[in-house]
Amino acid sequence: MNIISEIKITSLPLLLGLAVTSTALQASDLASRFTDNNGDLTADAPSDVKKWIDPDTLVFAYTPVEDPAVYAQVWDDFLKHMEKVTGKRVQFFPVQSNAAQLEAMRAGRLHVAGFNTGSTPVAVNCTGFVPFTMMAGKDGSFGYEMEIITRPDSGISKIDDIKGRNLAFTAPTSNSGFKAPSALLAAEFNLQADQDFTPSFSGSHDNSILGVVNNDYDAAAIANSVLQRMVSRDVVSTTDFTTIYKSQTFPTTGYGYVYNLKPELAAKIQDAFFSYQWAGSPLEAEFKNSGEAQFIPITYKKHWDVVRTIDNALNVSYNCN
């Protein structure tokens, strides 16, 4: 069963196995197979120790990007560190879509992951994902903004100019790639997909950015942290695009593990993140241009409150039993 199916933007995210309803997102929307006795909005480890899993090989996946092979190299040093801390073999699992990543964890094939901002609530509620950290700057600051970008020669200089044009989103579960821009365009500019502009789904922020630069899309809603990294790698140039909208700051990718890992193993995974030395590492080289320099502790209940508020405003609720 795939968790996410293709959707129509005007109907809000329709999920295969996750029925979107008109009921606002509640304080806890965990699937019934999970328990949350401590009220942190994430799934507790099973009370029955026989249901704990202790795999010989841990499988790790980073949020979908255009070229997963690039990030396999970026994460290789960190995964070797995790192997030393946990005593387990750690395998990088390249995923091409949010749906594939969510389904892999739901099916038990994925143990540790970084889910993008908008997918994190789906992962928490439907797969048992327990986020505990995110990347941050040296001063502890974190976050990114949603930007709507276009080409300098597109004839679009302000949001109202999107009327009658094509706007790319990334995926239905993406915060900056779909949910936030959908809510903001409607609330601030009275612009509705299919009515005022033609929506497309590119599959990733990388694809949306390249689609704008290569004239596949007139404009795109993207996470500027991804844009900054692509500029730093010379994939695109700052002269290739212009920004016509920038949002408030959102939390970045949430990193965590599946709820039914043996608690001692889950604790070692947390230690691997917090003990990793960034200085001179491939992670530092890749993420320094978007400001990240360390992993900091987070809680889903606190740090994803703004994202749940957006879901609430969109009347999104998940029924993923």
TrEMBL record:
Pfam families per the UniProt record, alphabetical: Phosphonate-bd (PF12974)
Sorted UniProt keywords: Signal
Homology family: Belongs to the phosphate/phosphite/phosphonate binding protein family.
InterPro entries: PhnD
Name of the protein described by the UniProt record: Phosphate/phosphite/phosphonate ABC transporter substrate-binding protein
Keyword Signal on entry: yes
Signal peptide: 1-27
GO CC annotation: ATP-binding cassette (ABC) transporter complex
Protein species of origin: Marinomonas profundi
Biological process, per Gene Ontology: transmembrane transport
Sequence intervals crossing the membrane: none
